[in-house]
Structure formats: structure tokens, C-alpha cells
Amino acid sequence: MPMYDTPKTSWEWLEHGMDPRLGPVSREYGLMFDPRAMGEARVVLPDSWLRLWKELPKHFINRRLRDLFIHEWLHEMETLNVDAIHAECCDDPHAFIKTKSIVFCIAQACIDFDRVISQEMPEPEPLPDQVQSAMNRFAEFCHCPDYCTLADMSLTASILMNEDTDLLNCTLDDLKLICPVNNAPTYEEEVRNDLEPARIRGQAENRFNSTPTMMEYRVSDLVDIVANTQRAIYDYRESSSSKEQDQLVVEILHQIARAKASFKRLWKGFALLSRKTVDPVVWHRDIVKYTSGYGGHLGLSGTQTPCVHLIDAFLGRKTFATEMGKTSLKAFQQTQYNHQCFILSVANGPQLRSFAEECSAQRTDHPVAAAFNDLVDSYTRGFLAMHKGRAIEFAKVGFTEAGPREFSAKTEYEWLATENVVSKLKRVFDEAIRERDQIKLDK
Which of 114, 142, 310, 337 has its CA nearest to residue 230? Predict the structure, then answer.
């Protein structure tokens, strides 16, 4: 793992700069890359891999990808020289990360999740050597897992459809996946000349898998807000001037107001993911299997969303005892390396909650204390409550009409009754919300 010179505060990380191949962090784009630069970035792959990338949906939807690798492409597919790709992209991190995401998405498409879900086999067969060896080398360069996570399948795999898009208010249809797998017809659909199912699957996949990307861009100002807040708290404690301290309190209240507006954009954006925009049956039957984890690790999971970990650290969450809390800790280890560094610096830096507690001790009606509690409520009663409602809605419809499956976060359910699934989801989400409610003062 790379070691930076010394532990730094959140604002020092931003001033110091971080290797973007290990994860983007900036005041302008938050925990995301510049989407316009990512859209324009080259894909540095040999012709055989470029051809596979373009034909991936056709092979994936007809479940032929693994057989093609083993029986037809064994000698045709070049072994990727990831070192050469890294050297060629030494001044172009966008190209390197975009290429990595495509390779990792190809790897995910090789997994036969149908056989795993139907319990024909406990775990998928090993990936083709050409794929796994490339993933291993990319993982060494990026200090990341050697399997697909949310970063590869969504955060670095979605580009803007329209360059004029307002990132803080972007929607599901403003983004496009660079490596979709569900937008091609099956052989049977081609014979019938029925292209509508492929269009529906492709649209559902694009909207569902782009949702975490949309969320990150809608709160991309949080990195700036968090760093400004923590710097102001630090300066307040260092100052001996009451006038300067009063000015810093005004600044902290301003940043809390900005954070509350950011949280509002987060839940309003997530609200766009609904039965009207993505059919839960299509999601459950066709989309989710591609996002599932294997080998004991999480698949594409909301618990890997970096902004959620940043919010928890900013608000001062210390307890992760619930089922979802434990999953969140595991998922944090799967986020991009620089995201871990920055979020840990926030968790270990000047804490907004402790500052609000100090203010409350000075004056029971101190505006910072009230603003802090209001901020926590806006998160738990806003985004987290919305997430709970959507998860239950999708699971209930999906399980009723499309049958059982394992969730990407490896949550275990009793499959015999839809009611059991809904009841378990309600309990898991309610526990997670209550755990965060404990952050509030006087709890």
C-alpha cells in the first residue's frame, strides 16, 4: 500500500494532492472524476479486447462468454500487458481508469451467476486466465480489490450524455454506462425480430447502475463542505479572539446549511429510482445477477457508495453494531484507496458533533447544536428513509413476480415467503436509521 508522508487533515489532503489512479478527491468533483474528461478519455486496449468490449452484451445475454473464452478465444485473445497500458497512460489517469473499468466489467460478465443462484454450484468457476491476470495487475497499480466493486461498475463506468448537465441536479437519464451488458437481444428475440425486451433491459440497467454515480455527483460539493467545516472548527479552537470565533461560528452554520441542501439533493435524486423508471421485475430477473458478488465478497452494493461513508464520518458516527453497520465496515475496505484515506482523515479530524456538543454546553439554545441535530434528521428522515422505502418496494415486487435471489450485500433471507423478505428488510433498515439517530445530541 502507498504511504503518504504524514497523517493529514481533510483540508490538507486537498492541498497535498492525491494520485487519481487510487481514487479521485477534489473540491470541484468531490469523490468523482470530471465526467466530461472521463467521457473523452481513450480506451487503451488491443483490438481483440476492443472487439470483445463492443460485443459484450450479445455474448453476455446469450450466456456464451465463458465458453467463447475457453474454446474459441484461448489463443486469439491477447494477454493484456497492463504494465504497458500503465506506462502509456502515465499522464492520463482518466484513460487508465476507464480501461480498468471496462476490463473489470468484462470479468464480471464472465461469472455464471445463474448456476450459483440455482445452487448448481457453491461458487462460480475461476475466471479465464486472460481476465484474472489483468485484474490482478490493475489491482496492484490501483491498490484496490482484484474483483468488481461499485467503483468499476458504476462510479468510473458512467459518462455524461449531455455536457451541459448541471452535476448537482443530474438525473438518471443524464448518464450512460460505458460497459452495458443487458442491451442486446437474445437469439430467440432476434429470430422473432423483437427488440423491445432488449431496449427495456438496457434502459433498466443503465438507470439502476448509474444511480450511485448520480448520487455522488449530486453531493459532489460535500468534500468542500466537510473540509471547510473542519478547518473552521480547528481555527475556532486555535483562536483567542471572541470576534474571530463569532465569525467562525457563522461560517460553520453556513457550511451546515450547505450540507443540508446537499443531503436534500441526495434523497431527491434517489427518489428518481422508482417503479416508474425501473421495472422491479426486470431489475430482479435480469439486472441484479450481473451485480452479485462471488467468492465471499460483496457485489455492487450501496454500502460501497463513498458519499455515504463520508457523511457518516462527517456526522461523527462511531457505532456499527447493526447488520448493515457491519456490512458497511466491510464495504468501506472495498472503496477506492484515496477515498479511504480522505474519509478516515475526516473521521479523525475536528468533529462537528463534538463542536456542537461544546456549543450546547455553553448555551442550551446554541444555533450550532440545533443546526447539527437538524442536519442528522435531514439525513436519516430524508435519504435513509427513502432508501428503505425503495428497497422494500423493489424487493417485494421482485420476489413476488420473479422469484428469490441473493442480494449483492450478501444479506441472508428466508426465501419461502415474500413477507419474510420485506420484514427482514424493514428491520435491517430501521436498525441502521436508529443507529445513526444516536449521533444526535442528547441521545
Answer: 310
Separation CA 215–CA 198 (nearest Å): 26
In contact, 270 and 387? CB cutoff 8 Å: yes
Contact call for residues 276 and 203 (beta carbons, < 8 A): no
The pTM of this model reads 0.92
Flag residues of the chain having pLDDT under 70: 1-7, 70-76, 112-125, 295, 398-419, 443
Cα 105 to the chain's mean position, in Å? 15
Give 359-380 pLDDT, tens digit per residue. 999 888 899 999 999 999 999 9
Residue 266's φ and ψ, nearest 5 degrees, are -65, -50
Distance CA 323, CA 185 (A): 39
Between CA 335 and CA 87 the distance in angstroms is 24
Q: Cell 442528547, residue?
A: 442
Question: Under a CB-based contact definition with an 8 Å cutoff, are residues 278 and 219 in contact?
Answer: no
Percent of the chain clearing pLDDT 90 (strictly above): 67
Say how far apart CA 92 and CA 150 lie, in whole Å: 22
Nearest Cα neighbor of 224 from 15, 11, 34, 23 is: 11
Please state, in angstroms and rounded to a whole number, the distance separating the CA atoms of residues 188 and 208: 25
Beta-bridge mates of residue 26: 30
